[in-house]
Automatic annotation (TrEMBL):
Listed SUPFAM superfamilies: Cytochrome c
Protein name: CxxC motif-containing protein, DUF1111 family
Source species, domain of life: Bacteria
Cited Pfam families: DHOR
UniProt keyword list: Heme, Iron, Metal-binding
Gene Ontology molecular function terms on file: cytochrome-c peroxidase activity; electron transfer activity; heme binding; metal ion binding
Every Cytochrome c domain range: 319-451
Amino acid sequence: MHLYKSTKLAIAFVVGVLTLQLACRKYQDDTTNPDDEWRSGGEQTVFDQGSGAFGHAFNGLPAYLARVHEVGDVQFNATFVSAPAPLNPGLGPVFNNVSCSSCHVNDGRGKIPGRGESAANMLFRVSLPGVGEHGSPLPVPGYGDQIQNRALLNYQPEADVAIGYTNESFAFGDGTSYELRRPTYTITNPYRPLPQGVLLSPRVAAPIFGLGLLEAISDVDILAREDPSDLDGDGISGRANWVWNIDEQRTTLGRFGWKANQPSLLQQTAAAYFADIGIANRLFSDTDGVLEITDSLLYAVDFYLRTLAVPGRRNVGAATVQQGKALFLSLGCSKCHIPDQRTAVTTAFPQTSYQLIHPYTDLLLHDMGEGLADNRPDFLADGNEWRTAPLWGIGLTQKVNGHTNFLHDGRARNLQEAILWHGGEAEAAKDRFRTLGKPDRDAVIAFLESL
């Protein structure tokens, strides 16, 4: 009982954070202090190159907030079971996985299924052409907005999805050949007939560290980088997604998810509990209104996500890494993958206040071309648009998660393939990379692996 009360008090202190928004600071190539490049998360950087690199709490948390983080950590890893049960009841009846950590393994990136494996770390969004409530995707009758491919005993999964790949051959400017694999997705074994025209979009679980720092960037700073009409003529037309905020009952800036379709970590967490695991909560519940996770535990998980530190960089001073960074900037990659951001000032939660961080994202939507298009709108994001993915920690993916599958659907088998899939607004930068000689291409990859 004492833990429950102290947890609620601590959470109440955190979830009401108010921010003082600062004037925009656009990225300048010469503003990053080389001595600071090691500290990707500012004061919330940890130096761990092992398999646990993504799982550290913020530095400097007072004891009572560290306890909230621990409670959230336990709940994030909790395995749900079918009701009735003495511990963690409420799973299903249809679901995608049994815990948060089952998808976000070691707080990192999900793995695409191998041959004969289920898509345990993937989910598939579905919708119909048109617009749903508050501008959301139009749900599919009987399915909602994602396919639950698992079910409790005596229940039937909604459907499954078969994944296939076709290899396509290309060549670098120096004549060296390379292959990209193009995925195809087929809905199989639907529990009821699907209407014509269903839009299907795959999603791999994204890393969850550093999200509290991204949430602490002011809306003003994010919106200042919008250029939807490309008025500066640089070919980059980033724009914001505006989405329905359930807590505030209004449309607010989206900044989380592959298409920036969630306005806050709390809403993203609550949505995942409900849609992925089948756990009703304050923000998302069935018609009977029965809640299967308490507010205190929901907020503890939200706080856990807010307070996961960012792994520091490696080999920053190596000549090849420095060469790769210079090329990254000159190719134009940094026009979307903004190296530097500054969090807003807050007296309520100083751990995120006015931090110079290096997430390599602008948190805006960009047209990534037909090659990566899912052709499924999500609020204001169209079928070609994706939010710029943060790059911090990306070089530790193999160590933490045991694979190097990248992009929203894991089609890229390494960082080089991830670059070569870029199109749309990134087409020119991709082509510049493609025409580099092998030593320069390797230097760019060495830089990315240092992040």
